[in-house]
Amino acid sequence: KANRKFHPDDTVVTLPNGLQIGGEKLALIAGPCSVESEAQITEVAKRVQHAGAQFLRGGAFKPRTSPYAFQGLKAQGLDLLNAAKKETGLPIVTELMSVRQIDLFLQAGVDIIQVGARNMQNFDLLRELGHLQTPILLKRGLSATIEELLMSAEYIMAGGNSNVILCERGIRTYETYTRNTLDISAVPILKKISHLPVVVDPSHAGGIAWLVEPLAMAAVAAGADGLIIEVHNNPPKALSDGAQSLTPDQFDHVAGRIREIAPFF
Ligand code: PEP
Ligand code: MN
Question: Where would I find the DAHP synthetase I/KDSA domain in this sequence (predicted)?
């Protein structure tokens, strides 16, 4: 179902409010790694919206390497995302980690459900998400091949949910300078063999704030349909992923650079 051979036209994922991912315009998703407080999420939401973002990201349930690290505000985080949505109108993109959270996410009206890299092959979860119509942002696994990413998309689509957005977020290689290695070639390859929209996450790929701009530019040049970028009002104090988070001013600058090569207004 994800194969372009049987579906030559590009899939455009359209939200109820008409916003699209995979259409003519570049989709810009921005916000903090984790939702931390109402003041934080609403401030970041307003700032990224002003810079041109059309979607707000923010983690409420966080898949952390250490069980002792901040795990997210959970249900309260979803409420705070909704508060920011009420203020700005920005649709919400947030990660779901378990089948047990599906009802909560539906009740909260999450606009796009993110499946994180660590859950890309949680087949039971993918199957359940296949029964929804909510768009799914499916992130490439830490060491997953392009074929494996597409098979995971297939699990969701097989159940009847064709609103799948693929996300290249860097993969593990022997290189240690960056957090992950952005597989830029995955963008044109996914666009060629699949009809699904492709979004790139330069934040988790590079793991370093100053790398976000060149990686974002490369992704757009390579044909990405959108970008998902981490932005925090105070990166040094962020409860997760501060090192790769842009300040709102830095995001404004990056959005300006991207606007030079891909109009998204
Ligand atoms: C995130 O988006 O904050 C995240 C945890 O991403 P990934 O699953 O790509 O590591
Ligand atoms: Mn993060």
Answer: 13-255
Helix, strand, or coil (residue 145): coil
- Which of 169, 171, 181 to probe ligand 1 with, by most ligand atoms within 8 A of CB? 169
Q: How far is the CA of 58 from the centre of ligand 2 (A)?
A: 9
Q: Does domain 4-60+71-257 have CATH number 3.40.630.30?
A: no
Count Cβ atoms within 10 A of the Cβ of residue 42 and give its class: 0-12 exposed, 13-18 middle, 19 or more buried.
Answer: buried
Q: Is the CB of 169 under 6 A from ligand 1?
A: yes
> Is the overall model pTM greater than 0.95, yes or no?
yes
Structure tokens at 153: 């998309």
Residue 261 pLDDT > 90, yes or no?
Answer: yes
Could you state, in order of their start, the residue ranges of all structural domains in the chain?
A: 4-60+71-257
Mutate to test the pocket of ligand 1, among 44, 171, 204 (most ligand atoms within 8 A of CB): 204
The pair of three-digit structure tokens given for residue 10, joined into one six-digit string: 């590009």
Q: How confident is the model at residue 265 (pLDDT cuts 50, 70, 90)?
A: low
